[in-house]
Predict the structure.
Amino acid sequence: MTLWLPRDYRAETSLEVKRSRFVTTLARVDSEDAARAVVADVRRAHPAARHHCSAFVVEVPDAQPVERSSDDGEPAGTAGMPMLEVLRGAGVSQAVAVVARYFGGVLLGTGGLVRAYSESVSQALDAAGRVRPVVRPLYALTVAHADAGRLQADLIAAGLELVDARFAEDAEFVFAAPAELDVAALVARLTRGGTVPRRAGETVIEEPAS
């Protein structure tokens, strides 16, 4: 099961290996453009670093995930790909990792570089939380203003999540519901048959990963 970083998550960790300092930025991203923007931002934040290596995994609707990596001047295969393998191995998506390396004067060799970049991303992931994306159906319903507050509270208490609310001539709500819940029967009971919910597509709810 693929897990995501929490929404808006961004943090920085640091690792020192033989006087070289590896500063890792790990961030939640939901598109390739957003991932590349984080890479550019880290370059600006760490202009004195010799390398800014990166890897990201982003899910795309109805397509394979987009996976990219960059060694940014390090020997081929010693930075970006090991970083990407750590993200893959952790089962994490919607994530970008950027490691800014400040060279300490001691050559690490190809094996040492692979270990350092891998450990940098692993350390950053250890400090990050995870959420589980869950697809839930959406239901829309329209009720009189006089009944809106009570019905909204009852539906939330029953396990639905309010996604949208609009107040015009009547109150219009959109709720995300657990897939196993019979929403039509629930609404019929709460409104004595006065309101019929309408399917309104689906959405992704992010729940804390246990």
